[in-house]
Write a structure and sequence with these properties.
Length: about 325
């Protein structure tokens, strides 16, 4: 399939009418991976309908807190001290995103960080859909050794100059996305687009034991867009590879999925599983299409030894879930 797509991408072809009219390739660097972490730099490459670069934009952002892993992103407190706050760049950022599909590598992470920053600024990012380049590479069947950005870049001969610098990461992703998009168009591949749902509520009320931080920032509470009914079954423990799932098992999800996340979670709930928003030592199973990513759930799964399966394997397991033990 890959050879056919590559050959087709280099030949004239009618562009799919259903494809988006423009893209915003985004990368954000952050103080960490948790919900209360902040964006410290952001970059956007705007692309037209066929992946050609229109312009690019970059900014550093004062996170109003410790910058986190400086050894990764290189942005120290001294560098960020005089940087604008997110609310000061929110309008300009929005003009770069408006009317476009947000494209990112592990897009659910970038989207969630952006959505939280806009919620803090009492605003909303003008993004309706996102596209994850990890999911697209899987749709195309690219022979990558893993799902890191550097592997995708190497596949298309894109040279990275400054890894973990938002502007260079966004450039690299834009250059790798262009041939991916053209191959998808040539092969009639359906783009893995997902809805971007804004946060429904943000509160300044600090959690017990937490005080307001620099600049008045308070650790905050995020509420999901809807509540799921409590799982009626006790947790039977961890999933054992090769065996069946059992009702009551706690299942967590990380990263983008080909099936809309809510639908996948609904299926899990209907099967009698407990859908968990976070990962702990009690989690029975983590479902992710990118086990090499550095998301907090994947990192914790490694630490706790939590079993991990991809979306396809989980779908098969959902077809035969063992009933909960009586009594």
């Amino acid at each position: 399939m890959l050879e056919d797509l590559t050959a087709a991408a280099s030949s004239p072809t009618a562009w799919p009418a259903a494809y988006p009219r423009g893209y915003a390739v985004v990368d954000v660097e952050t103080t960490g991976l948790a919900r209360d972490d902040r964006i410290i730099s952001a970059a956007v490459y705007r692309l037209d309908a066929r992946g050609e670069v229109e312009d690019h934009w970059y900014t550093v952002v004062n996170p109003e807190r410790d910058p986190g892993p400086v050894w990764i992103h290189g942005l120290t407190s001294d560098v960020l001290e005089g940087a604008p706050l997110f609310r000061d760049v929110a309008a300009e950022f929005a003009t770069r995103l408006e009317g476009r599909v947000l494209v990112a590598h592990n897009a659910v992470f970038d989207w969630q960080m952006i959505a939280r920053e806009y919620a803090r600024a009492r605003g909303e990012a003008p993004v309706k859909q996102r596209l994850c380049t990890i999911a697209l590479s899987k749709e195309l069947g690219l022979p990558l050794p893993n799902h890191k950005l550097e592997s995708l870049a190497a596949h298309f001969g894109v040279v990275q100059q400054r890894a973990h610098h938002a502007l260079d990461d966004a450039r690299v992703l834009a250059e790798a996305f262009r041939p991916s998009l053209r191959a998808a168009a040539a092969g009639g591949v359906r783009l893995p687009l997902h809805e971007c749902r804004p946060l429904t509520e943000w509160t300044d009320r600090p959690r017990i034991g937490h005080q307001a931080g620099p600049g008045g920032y308070r650790p905050a509470s995020w509420r999901p867009s809807r509540k799921r009914p409590a799982c009626p079954y006790p947790n039977p423990g961890r999933y054992e590879p090769g065996k069946r799932l059992k009702q009551g098992m706690r299942v967590a999800f990380s990263g983008d999925t080909s099936v809309e996340r809510d639908l996948l979670e609904d299926r899990a709930t209907e099967a009698g599983l407990h859908v968990a928003g976070s990962l702990s030592r009690l989690t029975s199973l983590l479902v992710t299409n990118d086990p090499d990513s550095g998301t907090s759930k994947v990192v914790k799964a490694r630490q706790y030894g939590t079993p991990v399966v991809d979306e396809a394997a989980f779908g098969q397991l959902l077809g035969d879930v063992e009933p909960a033990s009586e009594g």
